[in-house]
Design goal:
Layout (H helix, E strand, L loop, with lengths): L8 E7 L13 E5 L7 E8 L3 E7 L4 E6 L4 E9 L4 E2 L2 E2 L4 E5 L4 E6 L4 E8 H12 L4 H5 L2 E4 L2 H22 L10 H20 L3 E2 L4 H15 L7 H8 L3 H12 L3 H18 L1 H4 L3 H7 L5 H12 L3 H10 L1
Antiparallel strand pairs: 1-3, 2-5, 3-4, 4-11, 5-10, 6-9, 6-11, 7-8, 7-10, 9-12, 12-13
Helix pairs in contact: 1-4, 3-4, 5-6, 5-7, 8-10, 8-12
């Protein structure tokens, strides 16, 4: 789980799939891999606890993340490369700005190549910046996740500004003198975002609609699967519970998660098994018991799929956890 550091900090690191829970400032997340194979993801992260943060990740594996965002802060996400990913039900596009209000329950489907810069700031600071930059508080973006498309040149200018600020703060951070309060360039960026949202709101255009029907269907199916993960879940049962045809369900999963419903169910079972294996010795559990607990009926196939997903056998995960 992600927690704020005790003092202003900077890091520029490579993250393996098991480290992705720390990839979002102020957002404790649970991560499920959606496919086998991965390259390390990179993140630059500048954090001043409760004051501001700047994350610049580039993800190189497919995963599903769920968590509750910091109740006192907002996040403004500038998308560079979307690669078919979604956040909070919003299908991401290149040059998109996504505003996530305080306390939002965040879900994300990440596909390899997703790259963005996210600024995190206290709600009160964001409200003040809106008043100064736009002359008003934009209620819509403070009540629910909302997105706006920027012109390509404007989006590129903003990203260059954010990356230059990260480069500067990285140099400063190496000397352990990171500022506690948001730098002027950081607030200037927030002002530009507030102005862009205000302009779109006044024109009644430019904003991007949130969750599509297909996303809602896939999300409802995901909730059911997670609740009943220990049970047999044939696709016909899932269709009946969600109220869609098999064809509609397949399409919803393909467009939302880039996998089939069966592949999604298998992935969730493998991820849940891994979480249980990490604590298995302390709880006196065996590989067989854990496999059965997550609804696995074929142990040999489970072991083969597990190795394909995580690069080691269930037994090796259990042994490694016991040594740590």
């Amino acid at each position: 789980m992600t927690t704020w550091p005790s003092s202003p900090s900077y890091r520029d690191v490579l993250l393996g799939p098991d480290d992705l829970t720390s990839a979002a400032s102020g957002l404790p997340v649970e991560v499920d891999r959606l496919s086998a194979g991965w390259r390390p993801s990179r993140i630059r992260q500048i954090q001043s606890p409760g004051k501001w943060a700047l994350d610049l990740p580039e993800f190189n594996c497919a995963f599903r993340a769920r968590g509750g965002f910091d109740p006192g802060s907002v996040a403004l996400v500038a998308i560079e490369r979307a690669c078919g990913s979604t956040i909070c039900g919003v299908p991401l596009e290149d040059d998109l700005i996504l505003a996530i209000p305080a306390g939002t329950g965040v879900t994300a489907t990440v596909r390899p190549g997703l790259t963005y810069a996210v600024a995190i700031v206290p709600t009160a600071t964001w409200m003040e910046i809106q008043l100064v930059a736009a002359g008003m508080v934009i209620e819509k973006i403070n009540n629910r996740p909302s997105a706006i498309r920027l012109a390509t040149k404007e989006a590129q200018r903003i990203r260059r500004q954010m990356k230059s600020m990260a480069d500067y703060l990285g140099t400063v951070g190496s000397e352990s003198v990171l500022p506690e309060q948001p730098p002027a360039a950081f607030e200037e960026y927030l002002g530009a975002v507030a102005d862009a949202f205000a302009g779109a709101d006044s024109r009644g255009s430019g904003t991007v609609d949130c969750a599509s029907r297909h996303f809602r269907q896939a999300s409802a199916a995901e909730d059911f699967i997670r609740t009943h993960i220990r049970e047999d879940i044939p696709i016909v049962r899932l269709c009946r519970e969600i109220g869609v045809s098999r064809r509609q369900l397949e399409y919803a999963f393909r467009t939302t998660f880039a996998v089939t419903p069966l592949e999604f169910i298998r992935a969730l079972r493998l991820n849940e098994a891994r979480r249980l294996l990490v604590t298995a010795r302390a709880n006196g559990l065996s590989v067989t018991t854990i496999a059965m607990d997550v609804g696995v009926t074929h142990l040999g196939r489970f072991a083969a799929n597990y190795r394909l997903f995580f690069g080691e056998s269930p037994k090796e995960t259990l042994q490694r956890a016991g040594r740590s």
